């Protein structure tokens, strides 16, 4: 029988082990995906984007809370359907959030903003970290591009770009002087 302190330590250790195993698994998957090259297995079908975003934020929320980072959805997500592969597109958001968490070691805020602009949908992910270092900004989507990160392979954003392009969309870094990193994902409606 564990007393209260031992039980908490056991749970904390279990959570830490689980997070590290997940991180290693993600790195291995990124390496495998990068080495495959070629077209990815992407199955696009119509999905309500509002439901997709809310579900994605819920999934990511548990990890961000444990790292003292709040997720904020700034406005109501447009009620539109988008052709997407939910599993693959969620990977993009997980990569962006993982990078934001690495940048905000003391906690912070990640703001999601989704808006319809003509025949496309723009999703902005902005963190309250220190922003993107100028040395890396121009090549941030290149394979193995990283700057001062203690974790990761440098493939997450490269793979994210490919996934978004496979969705016939675009992902870019938006200049955000004096603020944190701001990524914009543009998907066709």
Describe this structure in words.
This protein has 189 residues and is α+β, with helices and mostly antiparallel strands. The protein is built from 5 helices and 7 strands. Strands 2-4-5-7-6 form a 5-stranded mixed beta sheet. β6 and β7 (182-188) form a beta hairpin. The longest helix has 33 residues, at 4-36. The model has no long low-confidence stretch (mean pLDDT 84).
Structural class: alpha+beta
Count up the helices: 5
What is the percentage of strand-forming residues?
15-25%
Whole-number mean pLDDT: 84
Radius of gyration: 17 Å
Record the strand order, biggest sheet: 2-4-5-7-6
- Unreliable stretches (pLDDT < 50, length at least 5) are none
What's the structural blueprint in terms of helices and strands?
Blueprint (H helix, E strand, L loop, with lengths): L3 H33 L8 E4 H18 L2 E5 L7 E4 L1 H18 L4 E10 L2 E8 L6 H4 L18 H11 L3 E4 L8 E7 L1
Helix pairs in contact: 2-3, 3-5
What labels would you give this structure?
alpha+beta, five-stranded mixed β-sheet, two-stranded antiparallel ribbon
Question: Can I get a quick summary?
Answer:
The chain has 189 residues and is of the alpha+beta class.
